[in-house]
Amino acid sequence: MKDEEIELRYFYRFILLFIIGSCLLFLPVRAEAAAISKTMQTTADSKRLTAPVTVSNTASVQKKWYQTARTIMHAAGGIGKTDYTNSKEALKTNLKRGKRLIEIDFRFTTDGTLVCNHDWNNNKGKPLSLASFLGTKTSGGYTPQTAEEAVKTIAAFKNAYLVADSKESDIAKVYQELVDICKRTGNTSFLNRIVVQLYYKSDYTKVKKIYAFKNWNFTLYRLKPSKDKEYKDIASFCKKNGIQTITMRYNWVTNARMKILKKYGITGLAYTVNSKSTYKKLRKLGITAIFTDFL
Q1: Residue 75 exposed, middle or buried by CB count within 10 Å (0-12, 13-18, 19+)
Q2: Which H or E run includes 246?
Q3: Cross-strand bridge partners of residue 104
Q4: Are the CB atoms for 87 and 147 separated by under 8 Å?
Q5: Helices (H), the chain
Q6: Are the CB atoms for 88 and 267 separated by under 8 Å?
Q7: N or C terminus of the chain: which is more exposed, having fewer CB within 10 Å?
Q8: Which residues contact 157 (CB under 8 A, 6 or more apart)?
C-alpha cells in the first residue's frame, strides 16, 4: 500500500474520531439545556395559572349595595356596650372598623333641622330644639350629630352607603332634606350611595318624585305582615318597581318566605341580629345581609 493511501486513511479516521468525540462532549450540555428549557416552560405555565385574571372595567359587573357587605350597622352601629346612639363616635368607630353599610335614624328638631336620632331617648321621648339636642349627650355619654355631619362623614369613605331610616311620618320631607344636604355640601354624587327605606307601598311614589334614587329597600317593621300571601304581594310590588331588597325581622324568616322572595328575584335581609349563631341560621335560609349593632 502506498504511503499516501495510508496517510489518507489515518486522516479520515482522525476526522471520524473527532466528530464522535465532539458529539459525546456536547451531549450533556444539550441535555442540560433541554432540562432548563423545560423548567422555564413549567414555571411560565405555573405563573399563567396562578396569575390574577385582568378584567377590563367595561366588562366588570358593579356590585349592588347589599352585596358589598354581610352586616348593616344599625343606628350607626354599637359602641362599647351601647346601641341606638346614632352618635359621632359610633359612626366613626364603625367606619374605621371597615363597615361600609351604615343605617342611621333621622328626625327633625323642633326648629326644623334633620338630626340623627332614633326616639329622642336623650330627652325621655320628647323632641328637642337643635341647640338642646346637640347639648345633650346620647345614652352612654356620646356626641349627637346632625344629618349633615353624618352625610359628610360617610361620603368621605369610598364605597360606604347610608341606609336611611325615617322616623318621621312625612318620609318625603326627610328625603328632600337629604337631597338638599348633599347638594349644598358638594356631595351630589353621594345620593347614589343613599339607600331609601320604604315602609308602605305609598312611600315609593312620594320619594320617587323627589330624586331618582338608585338603591331601595322595603322594610317590614311597620307593616308586620304575618301571612305568606302578604309577603307575596310585597315581593310582587318590589319586583314591579325595581326595589331590590326586603328586610324582615329575624324570627319572621322562613323557608317558604325566602322561596317567595327568590321567585320574584328579591334579596332577603334581616334585622336586628347580634348573635353569631342566629346569623349563621339566617345565612342557611338564604338571607344575604343583617342589620346588627355589634357583629
Answers
A1: buried
A2: strand 245-249
A3: 164
A4: no
A5: 3-50, 88-96, 130-134, 147-155, 171-184, 201-208, 228-241, 255-263, 276-285
A6: no
A7: N
A8: 95, 100
- pTM value is 0.79
Take residue 76 and report the three cell numbers written for it: 350607626
Which grid coordinates belong to 161?
352607603
Beta strand 101-108 pairing with 114-116: antiparallel
DSSP assigned state of 109:
-
Give per-residue burial for 188-210: e unless 16+ CB within 10 Å, then b: eebbebbbbbbbeeebbebbeeb
